[in-house]
Structure formats: structure tokens, C-alpha cells
Amino acid sequence: MSGNLCIGIDFGSSKVCASVWKNNHIEIIPNNEGNLTTPNFIAFTDNNCLLGSAAKNQAYRNTANTIFNYKNLIGRRFDDAEIPSSIKKSPFAIIEKSGRPYAEVSYQEKATDFSPEDLACMIISYMKNNTQEQLGKKVTNAIITVPSYYTYFQRQGIKNVCNQAGINVPRIINDTSAAAIAYCDKNLGGDNFDENLVNYYVNFFKANHKVDLSGNDRSMCRLRKACEQAKRSLSSSAKATIMIDSLYNDIDLYNTLSRETFEQLNKDLFKRLILPIQKVLKDANLKKN
């Protein structure tokens, strides 16, 4: 392996991707599965630690030991105002240790806890190793993106994660979703749309089968994955199919979701998007046409 390399890493809540400046343009580096993004998932079993797609694909049958959406925990104290909401939404246990939030899982047949920085380091190391394999060069530096609302301690936490993975961070920049801090809504993202869909189908299932899925982590994990896929399908299609065999016991979920219904379910979120877009256009002296 020859030469040193500086890469860019977009460290998202649900996905991570790496890029490099090559042939006078930015190239996204595919992972070893040929995909341009890698799920930001870590899973623990009796024998292994799984990362990326391998972790995400088994999440529905190993909900308590599959970690995702942990990025907001990095650099925080356990008594921070954001933590109770994270605990409520997480299928995995979040505990207090030395005043910090830790994820508690069963790993190698015993209870084990990991800091959010430990988890992030696993993913960053995975991305580093994949990039080195793909490009045949050693990765020594990386530009990392973070949300613009990240505090000093959270930014320092990300730097420490990269240093632990053997990567120097010459610069941290705000991610593209919040490039203009004056316009961003830090509480609005793709997960909000997913959550509305999940709640819709929890109520749909309850109305049709008299069963409340919300207390079943395995069912909720499978439903959340299907809702995310349906949301993506509706970006290019007028309809998407939700089809989950034996979602609860032997009861299947089969439903066709239209883009119109999706937009109606998320109308309040879309309204929240309109104001910052209008402000951006006004400040840039541009018209929507």
C-alpha cells in the first residue's frame, strides 16, 4: 500500500459515505458491496460484531442489540435535555455511566456497554479500511461533516473518534443539510418522515387487527425498515407497496401507499420546509421559477 490519502467522510445518522478528490472531481468510494453509502448500524451477537448492511439486515430479529441513530449522543452528558427523547425512541438500552450515555447490549453472552464514541469509531474504522482496500492507499487524514448545531464537545468527540481510528482531522465542516445555519431546522430530517409513516401503520394495524405493535420491538423494527423503503420509492413512483409477512404472529401487513397519502401524513413537516426555502430564495434574490 503506497502513498497517503486525505478523504472526506459524511457521517450521517442513518448512513455514512466516503469520498476522494480524483481526476479533478469528487468521487464517492463504493463499499465492498458496491454501494455508495453504508448504513450507520452496529449489531452485536453471541459471537460477532456486525457493521453496515450486515448489521441493518438482521436488526428486526436482534433489536435490543442493534445500534443506530446514536450520532446525537456523541459528546453529550447523560443529563442533557436531548437524552430522554433518545431513550424513548431507542429499541436498545441507553444507560448512564460516569455521567455519560452508553449503549448496553448483550455481546458474547454477557452484558456489555459502549460509548457513542466507541460505536462511531467502529464505523469510521470500517470506512477507513474499505477506502484503503478500494484505492490501495493508506488513509491518514479525513475531512468530517457534522451537523451545524453540534456543540464544541460534540465536535471534539468526533475528532477523538477519528484519532482513535488512526485518522487525523485537519478540518470539521457542517454537513450539507445544514450548510446555512441560519436556515436549518435541526429537529427536522428524514427520520421524522419515517416516524410519521410508522405511526400511521401502527394505527392502521391496530384498527384492522386489534393489535398494538408499538410494544413489540421486533415488529417495529421490521415496520420501520419497510416504511423507509416505501418513502424512498415514492421519490420516483406515485405508489409504493408495504408488504411484511407475519409482522405480528401470523398476521401479514399488505398495503399500497400513495404519494398523496404520504404528503398528507407529512404536511406539517413540508410546511416547516417551506419557510427556510423561501428565506434562502429571498436572501439570494432568486425566484422559485
From TrEMBL:
GO molecular function per UniProt: ATP binding; ATP-dependent protein folding chaperone
UniProt entry tagged with the keyword Nucleotide-binding: yes
This protein's UniProt keywords: ATP-binding, Chaperone, Nucleotide-binding, Stress response
SUPFAM superfamilies named in the record: Actin-like ATPase domain
rRNA-binding found in the keyword field: no
Homology family: Belongs to the heat shock protein 70 family.
Record-given protein name: Heat shock protein 70
Native species: Neocallimastix californiae
Taxonomic lineage: Eukaryota, Fungi, Fungi incertae sedis, Chytridiomycota, Chytridiomycota incertae sedis
